[in-house]
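Supplementary notes for students who missed Thursday's class. We covered one full example, reproduced here. Read the sequence, then the structure, then the short commentary at the end.
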Amino acid sequence: RCSRDWSSDVCSSDLIITAKHHDGFCLWPSKYSNHTVRESGWKNGKGDILKELSDACREFGLKFGVYVSPWDRNHPTYGTDKYNDTFINTLTEVLSNYGDIFEVWFDGANGEGPNGKKQVYDWKRIFETVRKLQPNALIFGPVGSDIRWVGNEEGYAGETNWGTMNKNMTESDAGLKLLNTGLEGGDTWRPSEVDVSIRPGWFYHKNQDSKVKSLNKLVDIYFASVGRGSNLLLNVPPDQRGLFHENDVKALKELKKYLDLSFRTNLAAGARASASNTRDNSASFAPANTVDNNPDTYWGAGEGITSASVELTLKKI
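Structure (token representation):
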């Protein structure tokens, strides 16, 4: 996951692991499932991927996040009222035992496919559980979440991409177009997150080893997501060795090198900023705040002004 603070030219890289996908397999030894790492041959059933990964994130300064699918194609209680208790207990384990979690990722998948069971998810209780156990975590998910889906899984936010939506607007209410652009004048800050895979699919398949996205494609996605005010969630699936394939690693290193070179020099540093309008002519909203390298300051036009501009006069290089 990558987001950029354009005022300080810092790219924040964080990690979100799929702790449980729709198949129901838990990457930790859950007490509420018999379909977990405990039942596998890995480390003789004594392993816990979430613990190892969360520890590694803390060691290397990465924020740790989790995707926990509410859909479960394995659990016998799925499709019944009892499953909501099961899911809350499962979620509680994840949010209680692995330190600070910066983002909790849900989707609305629900029994798709032939003979699929349907489940009425208790989203109110799910969100309350996150708020209680990880009060600083952001929630990606349906209505009421902190982050909205961008409306596609191709890697592209709208060319105009507002960070606001209306509070109780569901994905169905909004539709794909509005999810992609956000709602100008919406009453709630709900920025978009762009989820896309480095490969054609979300999981590892050997026949896709030669289909990892090129540097040009990844750069295009970066500027069409982060460059348009979104978070970029780039999926990289581990292979059958439990490692990232060499082709994926090569592509990631190429992208890092490109971005490092592209943003090595802050061309706006030391620039003189002027504006067509400044709120109350106050230093708190001065145009110089756009180039002061402080993410907590900003320029603002006057109340009621709907069209204003800032101009930077760059230093000679």
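Commentary. The helical segments are 49-60, 81-96, 123-133, 171-181, 215-225, 246-262. The longest strand covers residues 15-20. If anything here is unclear, bring it to office hours.
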